[in-house]
């Protein structure tokens, strides 16, 4: 336990819609939340202010997770403020729709660096604390496209699939140390990341979803929140996909 006897959770990409919903959920569950952001300073500050006004504990921490040195410095800063990190949510990511033959070296490298290497850097930085404490929860936020693949999103799908592989392998490695590692692979979620798809496409995706609706960031946050509780103490190495039945 860290700050004031509370569990400490680090959420990357917390200035975004899904990350923000996860941060709020964990704060409501009584955790100290380290809100990691890169470019969304205003959103991160607003989120933390809202959590604090609601009686929770949250502070913003800046880091480009594709830079391992920045990640290490950020994790140290979180430790200085709150204590050891009990829960890591690797949520930060980017997306892009582009034909496979048009993907440049730079675009490929950026996608992998942010969506996969960033999770590796954060996990590597936090894991020694969890191993020392013989407990911890790591949740990687993937995507249904990491399971099934998506046309015109090959580099995104590859990175998200990599998170699934990392989840399954690491869960086996650190399970004996009392650490659980799971993956949440959301379906179509209403967020700025899907706004670019347009209403016609979103309507079609809604029609394809058996539950007849588009998911919300809170739907993902509820799933993550459960996996952080003792109710999920026998769940590790799994991929859980809140997707409304679309796959």
Mean of residue pLDDT values: 95
**Shape category:** globular
Rounded to the nearest angstrom, the radius of gyration is: 17 Å
Number of helices: 9
How many angstroms does the end-to-end distance come to?
38 Å
Count of distinct strands: 7
- Describe the largest sheet: 7 strands, parallel
As residue ranges, the low-confidence spans are none
CATH class: Alpha Beta
Overall structural class, as computed from helix and strand content, comes to alpha/beta
Kindly estimate the percentage of residues that lie in beta strands according to DSSP.
Answer: 5-15%
Number of structural units classed as domains: 1
Tell me the name of the CATH homologous superfamily. NAD(P)-binding Rossmann-like Domain
CATH topology: Rossmann fold
| Order of SSEs | EHEHEHEHEHHEHHHE
Q: Helicity, in percent?
A: 40-55%
CATH architecture call:
3-Layer(aba) Sandwich
Q: Largest beta sheet: what is the strand line-up?
A: 3-2-1-4-5-6-7
Pick out its properties.
single chain, 247 residues, alpha/beta, Rossmann fold, 9 helices, 49% helix, globular
Describe this structure in words.
- This protein is α/β, with parallel strands linked by helices and 247 residues long.
- It is built from nine helices and seven strands, in the order E-H-E-H-E-H-E-H-E-H-H-E-H-H-H-E.
- The model has no long low-confidence stretch (mean pLDDT 95).
- Helix 3 (68-82) packs parallel to helix 4 and helix 4 (105-133) packs parallel to helix 6 (154-174).
- The chain has helices spanning 17-28, 41-53, 68-82, 105-133, 144-148, 154-174, 192-195, 198-208, 217-227; strands at 8-11, 32-37, 57-62, 87-90, 136-141, 179-184, 239-240.
- The N and C termini lie far apart (38 Å).
- It has a seven-stranded parallel β-sheet with strand order 3-2-1-4-5-6-7, with helices on both faces.
- The longest helix has 29 residues, at 105-133.
- It has a single domain (3-240), classed as Rossmann fold, CATH 3.40.50.
């Amino acid at each position: 336990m860290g700050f004031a006897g509370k569990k400490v959770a680090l959420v990357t990409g917390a200035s975004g819609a899904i990350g923000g919903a996860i941060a709020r959920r964990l704060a409501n569950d009584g955790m100290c939340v380290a809100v990691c952001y890169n470019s969304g300073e205003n959103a991160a500050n607003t989120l933390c202010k809202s959590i604090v006004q609601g009686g929770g504990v949250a502070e913003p921490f800046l880091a480009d997770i594709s830079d391992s040195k920045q990640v290490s410095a950020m994790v140290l800063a979180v430790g200085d403020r709150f204590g050891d990190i009990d829960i890591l949510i690797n949520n930060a990511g980017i997306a892009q729709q582009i034909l496979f033959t048009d993907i440049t070296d730079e675009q490929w490298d950026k996608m992998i660096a942010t969506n996969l290497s960033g999770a590796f850097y954060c996990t590597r930085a936090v894991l020694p604390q969890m191993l020392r404490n013989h407990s911890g929860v790591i949740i990687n936020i993937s995507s249904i496209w990491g399971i099934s693949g998506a046309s015109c999103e090959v580099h995104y799908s590859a990175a998200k699939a990599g998170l699934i592989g990392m989840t399954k392998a690491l869960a086996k490695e650190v399970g004996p140390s009392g650490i659980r590692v799971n993956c949440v692979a959301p379906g179509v979620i209403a967020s700025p990341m899907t706004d670019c798809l347009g209403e016609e496409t979103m309507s079609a995706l809604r029609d394809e979803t058996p539950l007849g609706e588009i998911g919300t960031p809170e739907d993902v946050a509820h799933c993550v929140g459960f996996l952080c509780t003792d109710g999920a103490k026998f769940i590790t190495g799994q991929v859980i996909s809140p997707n409304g039945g679309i796959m």
